[in-house]
């Protein structure tokens, strides 16, 4: 056995042991930023889908965290052997039902029939984003299945038109827009060429205390005291259903919240609860 063969064997053994221990191999995906837009005419625009990010490695589906997704065999039988980056999505404001379906160990056909994999990028491609759009469209058409679709990409002519479109999307239940520079290459990690544009921003924090409510929320949750990854502590008192106020997110759980900008001290303004991170 030569040295190269030995190294290959050791790497394969490590991978097998990692999977056997229940660990996961997290895919290296490209992530968006909230950077400034230089010239809107240089970007492709698409709706930001509020589904579940997923990665197809040519053989199986994985979550962004690297956990294999147990999709039915019929769901992916016509998919290509190339890697795809996209979103499992059905319709606006359906995040919870999508996650509930996707995370079942034994797939249920009825719920998977309502979900499609919307492809927005090709991780293995060396082409520009404009060229990748053409390839994604061709892949989707060749698959001839309702469960693999290309995310619709389009152009806008000006910033006023862009923000008018954002207002329209949000007013109709959408989450926001994604902007991808036409000449950008696929690069794992945060990319300044992939921008998310939202009326609200969102972030995560750990629940450290339950604060009792008053008035109509007597004997219920009034607010959560949370701590951000940077150590900042602040309260979130809105966005909860009555059911959540009776059974609030546990101490130590991670929640996602939305906000509109920050104060001079860095505290999120108008913070509102969105969901518990599962």
Radius of gyration: 21 Å
> Which outline best applies?
globular
**CA-CA gap between termini:** 46 Å
Number of helices: 7
Structural class: alpha+beta
Helical proportion, percent range: 10-25%
Order of helices and strands: HEEEEEHEHHEHEHEEEEEHEE
Write out the strand line-up for the largest beta sheet, numbering strands in chain order: 5-4-3-6-7-8
Number of beta-strand segments: 15
Low-confidence stretches: 1-23
Largest sheet: 6 strands, mixed
Query: Strand share of the residues?
Result: 25-35%
**What is the average per-residue confidence, as pLDDT, rounded to a whole number?**
88
How would you describe this structure to a colleague?
By secondary structure, the chain is of the alpha+beta class. The protein contains seven helices and 15 strands. It has helices at residues 3-20, 73-76, 95-102, 109-112, 129-143, 159-171, 242-246, and strands at residues 30-33, 43-47, 52-56, 61-63, 68-69, 84-89, 116-121, 148-150, 177-181, 189-197, 201-212, 221-227, 233-236, 254-259, 272-276. It has a six-stranded mixed β-sheet with strand order 5-4-3-6-7-8, with helices on one face. A five-stranded antiparallel β-sheet has the order 13-12-11-14-15. It is globular and about 60 Å long. 24% of the residues are buried. Mean pLDDT is 88; it is low at 1-23.
